[in-house]
């Protein structure tokens, strides 16, 4: 297990289309997080899962965004009816869940909405 | 969430030590101090974390003030590959998420 994998690395889509991103965490990590990062800013928290349960969602996550983690393994983040403002890097991270341990991040999916 | 304050940017010469400061005056007694860095076009990377005592690992050292209201990340010999954005983060009081600020852009000159 070499780390957190995200797919695709890049996605260009037309405004109004739906997109879905996938994240495969480190297998023994029970927590999975999604973040969004725009140019020049630090990552912003979107949501996190403990196993298959989605325990927290940011107010940034509008109704057009949905995330799932079936069976507590990989996760998907879907954006419906994309808007230009959704253009960003979407980062996934996983952790073992305790406060003292760090997160392992994937390399992200860069979304460009044209 | 307790917040941290970091300089926007710092510059260092290659092969010299770098001290990256972070203020966290509202830290609670149970907050861990985490440092991450983000290289261009990559996700953030864990560097080090600590609670009260100074910590060392292969990447860096973390010096924590006695009152815990500030900390310093120390890179002992900066290389060009250390050029990145460095984030100082207090682990959320219930441990649920990391809250990133803007971080410090570290530039390393050869």
Could you give the distance between the termini of chain B?
A: 38 Å
Number of strands of chain A: 11
Question: Biggest interface: chains and residue counts?
Answer: A-B, 25 and 25 residues
Low-confidence regions of chain A: none
Strand content of chain B: 35-45%
> Could you state the order of secondary-structure elements of chain A as H and E?
EEEEEEEEEEE
List the helices and strands and how they pair.
The complex is a heterodimer of chains A (114) and B (110).
Chain A lengths: L4 E3 L2 E4 L5 E6 L6 E7 L6 E7 L2 E5 L7 E4 L6 E5 L8 E8 L8 E2 L3 E5 L1
Chain B lengths: L8 E5 L4 E6 L9 E6 L6 E6 L4 E2 L4 E4 L5 E6 L8 E7 L13 E6 L1
Parallel strand pairs in B: 1-9
Antiparallel strand pairs in B: 2-7, 3-4, 3-8, 5-6, 6-7, 8-9
Describe the structure.
The complex is a heterodimer of chains A (114) and B (110). Helix content of chain A is 0%, strand content 49%. By secondary structure, chain A is mainly β. In chain A, a hairpin with an 8-residue loop joins strand 9 (88-95) and strand 10. The radius of gyration of chain A is 13 Å and the shape is globular. Chain B is an all-beta fold and 110 residues long. Chain B is 0% helix and 44% strand. Chain B has strands at residues 9-13, 18-23, 33-38, 45-50, 55-56, 61-64, 70-75, 84-90, 104-109. In chain B, strands 1-9-8-3-4 form a five-stranded mixed β-sheet, with no helix packed on it. Chain B has a four-stranded antiparallel β-sheet with strand order 2-7-6-5, with no helix packed on it. The termini of chain B are far apart. The model of chain B has no long low-confidence stretch (mean pLDDT 92). At the A-B interface, strand 5 and strand 10 of A face strand 4 of B.
């Amino acid at each position: 297990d070499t780390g957190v994998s995200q797919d695709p690395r890049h996605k260009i889509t037309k405004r109004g289309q739906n997109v879905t991103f996938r994240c495969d965490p480190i297998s023994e990590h029970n927590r999975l997080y999604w973040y969004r990062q725009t140019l020049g800013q630090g990552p912003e928290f979107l949501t996190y899962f403990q196993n298959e349960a989605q325990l927290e969602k940011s107010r940034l996550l509008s109704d057009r965004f949905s995330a799932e983690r079936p069976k507590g393994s990989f996760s998907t983040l879907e954006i419906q009816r994309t808007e230009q403002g959704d253009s960003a890097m979407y980062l996934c991270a996983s952790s073992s869940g305790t406060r003292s341990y760090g997160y392992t991040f994937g390399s992200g999916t860069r979304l460009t909405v044209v | 969430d307790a917040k941290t304050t970091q300089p926007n940017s710092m510059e260092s010469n290659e092969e010299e030590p770098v001290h990256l400061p972070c203020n966290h005056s509202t830290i609670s007694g149970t907050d861990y101090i985490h440092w991450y860095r983000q290289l261009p076009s990559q996700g953030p990377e864990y560097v080090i974390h600590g609670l009260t005592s100074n910590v060392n690992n292969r990447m860096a050292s973390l010096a924590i003030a006695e009152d815990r209201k500030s900390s310093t990340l120390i890179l002992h010999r900066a290389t060009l590959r250390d050029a990145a954005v460095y984030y100082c983060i207090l682990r959320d009081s219930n441990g649920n998420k990391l809250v990133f600020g803007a971080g410090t852009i570290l530039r390393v000159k050869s």
